[in-house]
Amino acid sequence: MVLKHESEAKLLQASKQYDAALKEQDLDKLNGLVDTNYIIHADGITLHADLKGINEAKNYWQAYFDKYTFEHEVLAGAVDKEASAAFCFWLDRFLEFLPIAGCCSATCFTKTNSARFTPCAVQNVTPKDESVFDEKLTTKQTLPSHKLGIFKHEFASDGKIKGTWFLRQFSKDEAARKLKNAPNFTEVKVHAPTYKGSGGIEPSEARSQKQDQAAQAYAKIWATGDPSTADAIMAEDVRNVDLLFAHETSGRAEFKSMIHSVFQAWKSEQENREAIAVSAGNKAFLHWTSIGVEKKEGLKNHMYGLEMLVFNEQCKISEILVLRQPLESQKAELFGAEE
What we know:
Layout: H1 6-23, E1 34-40, E2 51-52, H2 54-67, E3 68-80, E4 85-97, E5 145-155, E6 161-168, H3 172-178, H4 205-224, H5 230-233, E7 234-242, E8 247-250, H6 252-265, E9 266-278, E10 283-294, E11 299-311, E12 317-324, H7 328-334
Parallel strand pairs: 1-6, 7-12
Antiparallel strand pairs: 1-2, 3-4, 4-5, 5-6, 7-8, 9-10, 10-11, 11-12
């Protein structure tokens, strides 16, 4: 979207300040930025209970800082004024373990000493003292890696962040420890720098409106299971990439086929579009929730997802980057004993 209101600029600035706290590893920057009752919502993958209050949020991020050496980079963002929300697509570059002296096994936790958090990283690529590290992971599994993620911040009436929803990729060590059947992440090629900024597209109100209409139509496809509008809003060679589970469809025809397959196996009970935000350039973000039943397994699901749509010069969707929670049937197949 083209920012037209001061309130939109404030939402975007607050989102940038949150990312600055992570980039600079200065959690005092969260003081005054987040609400007294601030919540980091559990993603059900790396975090299994909501974190409530600024202290729990700081502990969570400090545990992340203690575990990894990385560079945090914002690639794209957008705001939805009506929903009082801001989105951010980000990259943590070159994630690498920091050795933690005295850590003896995967049951050891970082200094927060809370079972809400993922166990500490127990082996470095080049550990300082190999005797204190768990040998469960191979050197290949602990190589430095990149991690893409999306934040969606919700704001209170006073402009402070009241809640953050997030989904992100696994680092190599997480995939090795947490997944018993890890997807082949090498099959999905996503070159993160290409998503930075506006994609060389000149912002305009007309473009923003067209992209918003396309994003609304895209959300409706998933709400109804009817892909008949795909031809009008998608490029013929559109890519649909599941960043978390390493699955990709290529082309509009394959996308429509996927929709038909999903709704043959899925009975939707409630679909909510929580927010849609269009950037000043060539991106749009969605936060959705879904309640339904997997027909074959009879399993009830209550899940959410965060997505980024990328538009070409004709305002058609050329790429869909998806981060979503797993289906109930997928959890048993994917997650190992640590979960």
